[in-house]
Amino acid sequence: MFLACDIGNSNIKAGLFFRNKILESYSFQNLEKLTELYSQKKISGTGISSVVPAKSELLIKFLSRKNFSYHLITAASLFNVRINYKTPETLGSDRICSVEGALVMNGKMKEEEILISIDCGTATTINIIKYPGEFAGGVIGPGFKMLGEALHTYTDQLPSVNYSDFEGMIGDSTKSSIASGIINASAGMIQRVLEFLQSTYQSKKLKIFLTGGNAENIIPYLDFDFIYDKNLVLYGIKAVAELNLPVKP
Question: Which domains can be identified in the chain, with CATH numbers?
Fold first, then answer.
């Protein structure tokens, strides 16, 4: 079996694959719980996407010590998509794995298609693939929690808020007003970018894939067709790692 690991700012997500299907998915707060899987499951290879270098370094040390085959996804990795980005060395592996996952789920692109992956996590990212498989860039914005913490941290009187504080477009309390502002900032950014793409590529078909820990909270406020899969990035990690394995520690 193959293990895909997504080391994010908030959590460590992992998916255990048999062939091309996820058998089990996990979410961990620390690496110890993740490494326990290697004694519980028969894992033949591991793909790692990480935006937290200190954690991925510890995981690689563990895998090397135990002689597990792995691939850490970096800008130097081989990809199924062609990277058209001015600063590929700064492109987060979570973003590229998000579009790789969209490509896996979509299959071979048609000439008129543009694939878009939207990842609603600690940050909200919108990532674009143009035919025949070119990563063309995207948009990065703060996520719900980050926006809320910024308002709470940098002002003296504004409280912390949750999604449950949202009561409608026009808030009638400070908390509901903040929640409305944050949700509209997130949903509005996504909607505006999609409208721009739709108008720019008028004859093209936009196919949108949605994922991320905050996605289910944002979905009620989105007004377009999309495919939601919480494991989108894990599918992308597996696809990229398989291009680059085997790497024997």
Answer: 2-76+236-244 (3.30.420.40), 82-233 (3.30.420.40)
